[in-house]
């Protein structure tokens, strides 16, 4: 028999480029936002503000799962075919939901949310009162002595290629990576996010296979049960750091205790399991 050539599509390239552009646009929000909060807020209030920032960021995936649940109930060719002629239901394994509709809705919302950023001033005046507690008296004296000297000319903005080729970039990168506490925190964050992404990626499919749930139902349950507790935990952590005024060592001990407790509770998943489905030719004979 002659094998027919399967139809191919290059639409995944557009999805890849779209996600790449989305990532480029979203990346400055978190580091620049945290830097802004650290510079302009009081030192004891920074943990709460940062916790609010990350908590709000968790609502995005939560609403994304809920939106995906709604889109999965619609047929993939909605608006292009007569839905009355569709004989299968979302519970059918052949059903394909309108996965592309979520990209359009979230893209329009992101575009509208980005409009207010165009009206922000190019530069902000840094208030001195907000950083009095962060500056030592010796540093203030040095700053007063420096003000008496001639004001140096304003440096010209450097290009990205110049910054990457300069020796200061590699020197700064070496100092950051040689910091044991920062490097340990970086490795810990990589492990945590890797496990968290794997959890969100495969849990919907696990719920579909083991519990017979539809794709729409699985996304709805995950968005409603998994992500809100994470956001609440981040917010409560910021409140605890503000209330007890934890130092770097105190915050490290607190993070270690909570991570160890989460690890112990996660071990309980090994005692929860379901029997495999009966599949002819694999688990049972024909």
From TrEMBL:
It is found in: Cell membrane; Membrane. Its main location: membrane. Pfam families: OATP. Coiled coil: none annotated. One of its GO terms (cellular component) is basolateral plasma membrane. One of its GO terms (molecular function) is sodium-independent organic anion transmembrane transporter activity. The keyword Transferase does not apply. The chain crosses the membrane at residues 46-76, 96-120, 181-200, 220-241, 253-272. InterPro entries: MFS_trans_sf, OATP. One of its GO terms (biological process) is sodium-independent organic anion transport. It is a multi-pass membrane protein. The keyword Cell membrane does not apply. Keywords: Disulfide bond, Ion transport, Membrane, Transmembrane, Transmembrane helix, Transport. Belongs to the organo anion transporter (TC 2.A.60) family. PANTHER family: ORGANIC ANION TRANSPORTER, SOLUTE CARRIER ORGANIC ANION TRANSPORTER FAMILY MEMBER 1B3. This is Solute carrier organic anion transporter family member. The gene is Slco1c1_1.
């Amino acid at each position: 028999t002659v094998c027919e050539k399967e139809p191919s599509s290059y639409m995944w390239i557009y999805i890849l480029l779209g996600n790449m552009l989305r990532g480029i646009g979203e990346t400055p929000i978190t580091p620049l936002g945290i830097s802004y909060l650290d510079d302009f807020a009081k030192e004891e209030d920074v943990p709460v503000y940062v916790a609010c920032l990350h908590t709000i960021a968790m609502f995005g995936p939560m609403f994304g799962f809920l939106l995906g649940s709604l889109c999965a109930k619609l047929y993939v060719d909605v608006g292009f075919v007569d839905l009355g002629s569709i004989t299968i239901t979302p519970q059918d394994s052949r059903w394909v939901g309108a996965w592309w509709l979520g990209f359009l809705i979230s893209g329009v919302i992101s575009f509208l949310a980005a409009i207010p950023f165009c009206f922000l001033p190019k530069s902000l005046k840094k208030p001195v009162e907000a950083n009095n507690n962060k500056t030592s008296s010796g540093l203030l004296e040095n700053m007063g002595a420096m003000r008496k000297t001639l004001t140096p000319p304003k440096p010209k903005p450097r290009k990205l290629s110049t910054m990457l080729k300069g020796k200061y970039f590699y020197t700064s990168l070496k100092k950051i990576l040689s910091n044991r506490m920062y490097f340990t925190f970086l490795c810990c964050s990589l492990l945590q996010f890797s496990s968290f992404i794997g959890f969100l990626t495969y849990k919907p499919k696990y719920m579909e296979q083991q519990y017979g749930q539809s794709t729409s139902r699985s996304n709805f349950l995950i968005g409603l049960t998994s992500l809100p507790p994470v956001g609440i935990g981040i917010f409560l952590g910021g409140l605890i750091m503000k209330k007890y005024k934890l130092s770097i060592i105190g915050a490290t001990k607190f993070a270690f205790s909570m991570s160890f407790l989460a690890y112990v509770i996660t071990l309980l998943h090994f005692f929860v399991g379901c029997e495999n489905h009966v599949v002819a030719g694999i688990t049972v004979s024909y």
